[in-house]
Amino acid sequence: MIKVGIVGGTGYTGVELLRLLAQHPQAEVAVITSRSENGVKVTDMYPNLRGHYDQLAFTNPDTATLGACDVVFFATPHGVAHALAAELLDAGTRVIDLSADFRLQDADEWAKWYGQPHGAPGLLPEAVYGLPEVNREQIKGARLIAVPGCYPTAAQLGYLPLLERGLADTSRLIADCKSGVSGAGRAAKVGSLFTEAGESMMAYAVKGHRHLPEISQGLRRAAGGNVGLTFVPHLTPMIRGIHATLYATVLDTSVDLQALYEQRYASEPFVDVMPAGSHPETRSVRGANVCRIAIHRPQGGDLVVVLSVIDNLVKGASGQALQNMNIVFGLDERLGLGNAALLP
Ligand SMILES: NC(=O)C1=CN([C@@H]2O[C@H](COP(=O)(O)OP(=O)(O)OC[C@H]3O[C@@H](n4cnc5c(N)ncnc54)[C@H](OP(=O)(O)O)[C@@H]3O)[C@@H](O)[C@H]2O)C=CC1
Ligand SMILES: CC(=O)N[C@@H](CCC(=O)OP(=O)(O)O)C(=O)O
Predict the structure, then answer these.
(1) What residue ranges line ligand 1, CB within 6 angstroms?
(2) Could you tell me the pTM of the whole model?
(3) Strand, helix or coil at 40?
(4) CB atoms closer than 10 angstroms to residue 328
(5) Residues 178-211 pLDDT 10s
(6) What is the rounded CA–CA span in Å between residue 227 and residue 229?
(7) Domains in the chain, start-ordered, CATH in brackets?
């Protein structure tokens, strides 16, 4: 059994990891941390997990206890993994970080977007960006994984086939993305109140969102050169889900884009290219580690619209983190990620 530690077990992504790991046949959660709920039984806070974690209680983060685990997930705000990762890696523990601490390869760029100095630039060269559809070989056996962000997962999976084949005008890409409110985390914020977000929709961070450099980094790698990306996130009145509407101008209108996408993702267990003309709904991926994609050419011209949906807490965070764990340890990457796609 793989001994798992989770730092930040009371947050939305932490409890989602618990839900998924409860069904994993080769992993057991040994340590789960929370400073505010130290000593509280996990099932007292989350009765939905009764019968799975009855002996487990939250503890304060402690590197000695965490360092005895085979793998530690960080489901924490930015900066926490910077402070603790090196010590855990020295202890021989693998680190899978759900925060953005190791996603950007450039420490100065990270500092600019996150408003604080990068806390562990020395670890960046070995951090692997955990998007299995791109980096599966590097993830195998890696010690430090940076799990992609939620918007970046939906946007990159939607754009990659076009860009890898040089089929899009990369100077003008537009990602119009909508998120459910759980994307903002569990901490109390006025903007997340039901009375504020429950029956309203708004764009935010149009001037520049911290996921812009992350998406651009991935698209640059795919395209082999610079990209001009406009990314506009929106907050929508749903709990889970990301819906990305991705626009691009195609350079060769004779290419069968449906066939291209189907071939690109044919062997990917968690990417579903839907029939041409489909409109994927966020509810079709709720609770599932799946990205559903549909390709449109509205007037049959050179404008392509790609629709890409995920559950921000699953393929956008904890499910993708677990997929990475499976790959790191040489397991079938579908373990523990089985059946939620069949929810209505
Ligand atoms: N929500 C989402 O859809 C997604 C989130 N992410 C990222 O995953 C990470 C977690 O997100 P989310 O679950 O939403 O966050 P939450 O705010 O819901 O939870 C944060 C957790 O971290 C713990 N924590 C906070 N500060 C510290 C600290 N200094 N040291 C140790 N533990 C701490 C909290 O518990 P306590 O304070 O009790 O210790 C809590 O359990 C973030 O970096 C987020 O950006 C990534 C993709 C999607
Ligand atoms: C709706 C909402 O507020 N979403 C968050 C992004 C989700 C997230 O947690 O960001 P990471 O994936 O980088 O960790 C935001 O815009 O800041």
Answers:
(1) 7-14, 34-37, 61, 75-78, 80, 98-99, 149-150, 182-183, 185-187, 312-313, 316-317
(2) 0.97
(3) coil
(4) 23
(5) 999 999 999 989 999 999 999 999 999 999 999 9
(6) 6
(7) 2-126 (3.40.50.720), 150-312 (3.30.360.10)
Rounded Cα–Cα distance for residues 312 and 309 (Å): 9
Q: In what order do the strands lie in the sheet with 242-249?
A: 202-203, 229-235, 173-179, 242-249, 303-310, 291-296, 271-273
Q: Ligand 2 centroid vs 64 CA: distance in angstroms? A: 30
Q: What is the pLDDT of residues 110-134, one digit of tens each?
A: 999 999 999 999 999 999 999 999 9
Catalytically active residues are 150
> In this structure, which ligand is nearest to the CA of 59?
1
Structure tokens at 217: 């980094």
The two structure tokens encoding residue 218: 């991935």
Contact 324, 130 (CB under 8 A): yes
- Global ipTM: 0.97
